[in-house]
Design brief:
Distance between the termini: 90 Å
Number of helices: 20
Number of strands: 27
CATH superfamily of the domain at 366-587: Glycoside hydrolase family 3 C-terminal domain
Largest sheet: 6 strands, mixed
Helix content: 25-40%
């Protein structure tokens, strides 16, 4: 065999590959007995600058000579595994917030993480883990405060209250990441968008959040982020598109260093929002950096560890130009690698229990039942002139009950945004007709006279209206009346729906409005033109069945509003005003259409006198009806004499099942942290002594701590 023969060269490459692999097996980063940080530091030290930079974008490139596999940082799981084929689709997060059931939310996201692991394990078997959304890092939950109903992405949040957002967010993280004492982490969750971000969509790439009161910053906008960092140990934080105090959030040393790292001791990783670093220097953005080399250097120096985009590839130029030190890049890369070691990304897959989740968990019956349970608990009964629940037998003839409206048969509307694709979706019409087969479905048309004529023989009209995720959402190309770029400019129903509801009412019909939306809707005229209103949100794959069961009394509604329903936009401050005065129930001093926490039941609950002792609030709740029901007890606190603070703020809640005709004693813990308040002297949140008013169920008591 000649010295340069092709066979000899192939053999040499094979032997060289075996040699590299053998050496790699001996390196400390391959030793599972070392800590993830020790392994990450060892591996980082063996990489070239080019290899390091290649691992710092959302598609982390492989390093074959060291057996480093590809890794996808960008996957979605807002309310089910998203953008990756079939998955169980749960109600949107705003709907889950309306359940006020943190245990349910953790169960939901435990199911989501099961399905995510199944999909990842399958991708590894098929070799498709290079594809987007096939990874173990999931950019959820969105814990921005929903301060204004015009924001189209509000449907992705857990409402307008910092405490509710925090406890729901912690449940999401626990469900996704798995037990803290597990040998490997199940998934990586990501709290977003850090910070002070809640619309508008049209200006987010250049908007500067400034002149925000320190109190609003810490008590409202940062409250949930701090809870997820300090209590839930969330793995990732996503920095936002907007600027904060003149610096893009992804280069804000105030946010990413002073607050996140120094004050909260966050030891996880920070990812940019997608192409947010481009906003530093491109024409449409902040005009903050002169060019992309400076932009990426500033982002990493400030603490952004991985980029959604490709601009970080210019970090090599940043090192050559002396704008960033390689040691600073190492700091970020070690954080990324440490997270991957915690997942077991470099270890024998047979050692990882999460790799043993059976494929049958994907879209299984248990998860479908859970989606139905979540939808049932999320529905909020806003109005009922004694017409609900309906009697399925009253339909009698073929046309005495009709189902109509733009959302009656729209399955895609049910999925919300950032969604997966269910095996089957139960629309509202399908759910209603499963219980009442004689109910007639009328095809939706925008002509008022045609719709009224089609329902002329009906006594009861179930109108499935509202809007859809095709109109509200993230930075959308929508220019319909009342909508702008994914946001809303008005919060009322579209005009054609208002006109049809008015005409049906005038024709003497009994009108029930099933309202679909991601957040609050102005319903002033509908107070007169409807007999009942059911807030159904975007209910997921089983939303139609849940709505039908509530309409016909098989389920007693128990949802509560996680947002204020204003009358119209005239009650709101400027959309770009981020100070909290006038925003949300905590600072709104007007008369809303429906307040935060509102929700009717088919049962009647009567609250007893609240008592406070030994860190617990106690009271009795009586069910003065013939129906078993569930009441959510909401506990608000206000500090006496704090004229600059919120009118009231939620600090505890509990769902209570009360059988018909009986009462139940309720005990709700109010630990010291429930009295954590803004301290103007130290400019920080602290547990403060003083007098507090505790409100629950329209009753209140004053205590001194």
């Amino acid at each position: 065999m000649s010295k340069n023969s092709p066979i000899r060269q192939v053999l040499w490459l094979v032997l060289l590959s075996i040699s590299f692999s053998a050496h790699a097996q001996q390196y400390p980063y391959k030793n599972p007995n070392l800590s993830p940080k020790e392994r990450a530091q060892d591996l980082c030290g063996r990489l070239t600058l080019q290899e390091k930079v290649g691992m710092m974008t959302h598609f982390s490139k492989p390093v074959e000579r060291l057996d480093v596999p590809v890794f996808q940082w960008w996957s979605e799981a807002l309310h089910g595994v998203g953008r990756n084929g079939n998955a169980t689709v749960f109600p949107i997060t705003m709907a889950m917030a309306a359940t006020f059931d943190t245990v349910l939310v953790e169960r939901v996201f435990t199911a989501v993480s099961d399905e995510a692991r199944v999909k990842y394990n399958k991708a590894c078997r098929l070799g498709t883990q290079r594809e987007m959304y096939h990874g173990l890092s999931f950019w959820t939950p969105n814990i921005n405060i929903f301060r204004d109903p015009r924001w189209g992405r509000g449907q992705e949040t857990y409402g307008e209250d910092p405490y509710l957002t925090a406890v729901m967010g912690k449940s999401v993280v626990r469900g996704l990441q798995g037990p803290m004492d597990a040998p490997y982490q199940k998934l990586l969750a990501c709290a977003k968008h850090f910070a002070v971000h809640s619309g508008p969509e049209w200006s987010r790439h250049r908007f500067n959040a400034e002149n925000i009161k320190l109190r609003d910053l810490h008590e409202t906008y940062l409250y949930a982020f701090r809870a997820l960092v300090k209590e839930a140990k969330v793995a990732e934080i996503m920095c936002a598109y907007n600027s904060f105090e003149g610096k893009p959030c992804c280069s804000s040393d105030r946010l990413l260093q002073q607050i996140l790292r120094e004050e909260w001791h966050f030891d996880g990783l920070v990812t940019s929002d997608c192409w947010a670093v481009d906003d530093f220097w491109k024409e449409w953005g902040h005009h903050y950096s002169e060019n992309k080399t400076i932009a990426v250097s500033e982002a990493v120096i400030a603490g952004t560890d991985v980029e959604c985009g490709q601009t970080f590839e210019s970090l090599q130029d940043g090192v050559r130009e002396g704008r960033i030190k390689e040691e600073t890049i190492d700091r970020s890369l070690v954080r990324l690698l440490e997270a991957r070691f915690r997942l077991g990304n470099f270890d024998d897959p047979h050692l990882n229990p999460w790799n043993k989740i059976p494929d049958e968990r994907l879209c299984c019956q248990e998860h479908s039942d859970l989606a139905l349970e979540a939808a049932r608990k999320s529905i909020v009964l806003l109005k009922n002139n004694s017409v609900l629940p309906l009697d399925a037998s009253m339909a009698g003839g073929q046309s005495s009950m009709v189902v109509m409206g733009p959302n009656a048969s729209d399955s895609e509307m049910m999925w919300g945004n950032y969604n997966g694709f269910p095996l089957h979706t139960i629309t509202h019409a399908e759910g209603i007709r499963a219980i009442c087969p004689s109910a007639k479905l009328i095809e939706w048309k925008r002509d008022v006279q045609q719709q009224v004529e089609a329902a002329k023989d009906a006594q009861t009209v179930i109108f499935c209206g509202g809007i859809s995720p095709r109109l509200e959402g993230e930075e959308m190309n929508v220019d319909e009346p009342g909508f702008k770029g994914g946001d809303r400019t008005m919060i009322e129903l579209p005009q054609d729906q208002r006109d049809i509801l008015a005409a049906l009412h005038k024709a003497g019909k009994r009108v029930i409005l099933v309202l679909c939306s991601g957040s609050a809707t102005g319903l002033v005229p509908e107070q007169q033109t409807t007999d009942a209103i059911l807030q159904a949100w975007y209910g997921g794959q089983a939303g139609g069945q849940a709505v039908a069961e509530v309409l016909f009394g098989r389920v007693n509604p128990s949802g509560k509003l996680p947002v204020t329903f204003y009358r119209n936009v005239d009650q709101l401050p400027d959309f770009e005003d981020y100070n909290m005065e006038g925003h949300t129930y905590r600072y709104f001093r007007g008369e809303p259409l429906y307040p935060f926490g509102f929700g009717l039941s088919y049962s009647k609950f009567v609250y007893g006198k609240p008592r406070f002792a030994d860190g617990k609030l106690s009271l009795s709740i009586a069910n003065k009806s013939k129906r078993d029901g569930t009441e959510t007890v909401l506990v608000y606190i206000n500090k006496v004499g704090d004229t600059d603070g919120p009118i009231r703020t939620l600090r505890a809640f509990q769902r209570v099942e009360v059988p018909a005709g009986s009462s139940k004693e309720v005990s709700i813990p109010l630990p010291d942290t429930a009295f954590e308040w803004w301290d103007a002297k130290s400019n920080a949140m602290r547990i403060l002594p003083g007098q507090y008013v505790i409100e629950v169920g329209g009753k209140s008591l004053r205590i001194t701590r």
